[in-house]
Each structure stands twice: as structure tokens, then as C-alpha cells.
């Protein structure tokens, strides 16, 4: 009976709290689905958003150690570091990116290490143009990722 009586109101509900903007896109979708069914009932809405914010924060920390993110971050760092000292070429070696990934992991006190081969596999999975062990057009590609 609740569904029949409130379907139109829930379907057209658009007064979402501004706190939703701080969540990741996926968590925003979940929050909208849960919050819209409450039709703005504040105590319940706040409680649900608090739980989702905590869960989202934990998920972001977990994603920070995914190989794709580590490699993309290292690629940006290597490209910008090379540009600062003025001796950067358009290509860089996969081993340089692997060294940067492993240095960042050491700085974060993680035991995980990625070999140059693993970094190359991740770069290929991201669609990065490779020629042998060199990343072609690394600067432009690092900004696309």
C-alpha cells in the first residue's frame, strides 16, 4: 500500500541534501535511492548519510592501493618531474614508472612491490601506447588517464 500511495512523490523527489556531493558517484546513486524513499525525513536521512559517508571513506582508502591508480599516479609524477628539470623526452621507460610506483608504496610503508612487467601490464590495460618497454607520448597520455 505504501508503494502505491507514495510512488509519484518518491519518483519526483528532488530535495537531496548537499552532503551527497561529497560522496563518490556510485555512493551518490545508492544514497539517492535510499533517501528519496524517506521523502526528506531528516533524522533518518542524516543517519543513512552518515553510514554511507563512513563506508565511502573506507572504500576510497581501499581504492588508493589499486594497481591502476598507483600506476596512473606514478606516470603523472614521472612526467611532471621530468618537465621540471627540463630533460624530459616524450617517451619514458616502464621501469621508471615501476620505480616511482614502488617508491610511493615505500613512502606509504606498504610491503607491496610492482615489477616493471606488472606495471607494463597495467599500462596496457589502461590503453597506454607502449613500444617495447617505453611509454610513447607519456605526457599527453598521463593527462588522459
Description:
By secondary structure, the protein is mostly helical. It has 7 helices and 3 strands. The chain is elongated, with a radius of gyration of 22 Å. 21% of the residues are buried. Residues 83-88 have low confidence and may be disordered.
Tally the helices: 7
Average pLDDT: 77
The 3D shape can be described as elongated
Gyration radius, in Å: 22 Å
* Major sheet: 3 strands, antiparallel
Give a quick summary of the entry.
This protein has helices at 2-11, 25-36, 42-63, 67-85, 94-107, 116-125, 138-144; strands spanning 92-93, 130-131, 134-135.
Label this structure with key terms:
Arc Repressor Mutant, subunit A; mainly alpha; 65% helix; three-stranded antiparallel beta sheet
Write the layout of secondary structure elements.
Layout lengths: L1 H10 L13 H12 L5 H22 L3 H19 L6 E2 H14 L8 H10 L4 E2 L2 E2 L2 H7 L1
Antiparallel strand pairs: 1-3, 2-3
Helix pairs in contact: 2-3, 4-5, 4-7, 5-6
Amino acid at each position: 500500500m505504501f508503494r502505491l500511495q507514495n510512488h509519484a512523490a518518491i519518483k519526483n523527489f528532488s530535495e537531496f541534501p548537499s552532503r551527497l556531493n561529497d560522496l563518490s558517484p556510485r555512493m551518490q546513486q545508492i544514497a539517492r535511492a535510499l533517501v528519496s524513499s524517506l521523502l526528506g525525513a531528516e533524522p533518518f536521512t542524516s543517519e543513512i548519510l552518515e553510514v554511507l559517508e563512513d563506508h565511502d571513506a573506507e572504500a576510497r582508502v581501499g581504492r588508493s592501493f589499486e594497481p591502476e591508480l598507483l600506476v596512473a599516479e606514478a606516470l603523472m609524477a614521472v612526467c611532471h618531474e621530468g618537465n621540471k628539470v627540463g630533460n624530459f623526452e616524450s617517451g619514458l621507460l616502464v621501469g621508471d614508472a615501476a620505480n616511482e610506483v614502488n617508491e610511493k608504496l615505500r613512502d606509504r610503508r606498504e610491503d607491496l612491490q610492482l615489477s616493471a612487467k606488472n606495471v607494463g601490464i597495467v599500462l596496457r590495460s589502461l590503453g597506454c601506447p607502449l613500444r617495447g618497454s617505453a611509454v610513447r607520448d607519456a605526457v599527453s597520455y598521463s593527462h588522459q588517464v
